[in-house]
Design a protein that fits this description.
- The protein has 191 residues and is an alpha+beta fold.
- It has a single domain (21-187), classed as Distorted Sandwich (Ganglioside M2 Activator Protein, Chain: A).
- Helix content is 15%, strand content 47%.
- It is built from three helices and 14 strands.
- It has helices at 4-18, 104-112, 121-125, and strands spanning 26-29, 35-43, 47-49, 51-61, 66-67, 70-79, 82-86, 88-91, 94-97, 100-101, 134-135, 140-149, 162-172, 175-187.
- Strands 1, 3, 6, 7, 10, 13 and 14 form a seven-stranded mixed beta sheet that branches. A three-stranded antiparallel beta sheet has the order 2-4-12, with no helix packed on it. Strands 5-11 form a two-stranded antiparallel ribbon.
- The protein is globular and about 65 Å long.
- It starts with a helix and ends with a strand.
Length: 191
């Protein structure tokens, strides 16, 4: 028979194991058509927000990527071993959370504050000029670049901590991407 101390230690071990953050970005295809991600990584993991890191990805599509990218994002956030779905909120005119975004490119521009004059060189070298709608001269990308993540706005500060399970569905032209992704985020200054 187990002692109370053994049971408490066992329960603490389970709680500790459940609260562990993801050690790397993982992704699985959930029904993409005409596009394939062959590499996606971000270092360091957990992602430090605000902070800097290295994003690396390779994407190949059957046609040029051009037009308005529509996206639907479903987010589950886990903190302390408890996973909860995140709803879609509209705060200060911005959609935040599990929402359908009519122009995903424009959302990324607002988050990263990229414009033509400050578009990262690695993007420009690959035909991305930080303008929306997107219009690439090619149908494949292979990019590794340093990224600076800004502070989340006060109304979205919950985005700076936790394990995230995200289902991203995006489409442009005949390209339909669907990927389940997992990654961890922690606020700057936390061990």
């Amino acid at each position: 028979m187990l002692s109370k101390t053994s049971i408490i230690i066992f329960m603490c071990c389970i709680a500790y194991a459940l609260s562990q953050t993801y050690k790397e970005v993982t992704y699985t295809d959930c029904g993409s058509k005409n596009v394939r991600i062959s590499r996606l990584s971000y270092k360091p993991m957990p992602i430090v927000q605000p902070g800097t890191g290295t994003l690396s990805f390779a994407v190949a599509a059957t046609e040029r990527i051009q037009g308005v990218i529509k996206a639907k994002i479903d987010i589950k956030r886990k903190v302390g071993g408890i996973a909860l779905p995140v709803s879609c909120y509209i705060v200060q005119g911005e959609q935040v959370g599990s929402c359908t975004y009519p122009d995903f490119c424009a959302l990324l521009k607002r988050v990263f504050k990229y414009e033509v004059h400050n578009c990262p060189a690695k993007l420009v070298q690959n035909g991305i000029n930080c303008n929306c709608p997107i219009s690439l001269a090619r149908n494949d990308l292979d990019i590794e670049m340093d990224v600076t993540l800004p502070s989340a706005p006060e109304y979205a500060s919950w985005l700076s901590v936790g394990d995230f399970d995200i289902k991203l569905q995006a489409s442009v032209g005949q390209i339909e991407a669907c990927y389940d992704m997992k990654f961890a985020v922690k606020p700057a200054g936390r061990p």
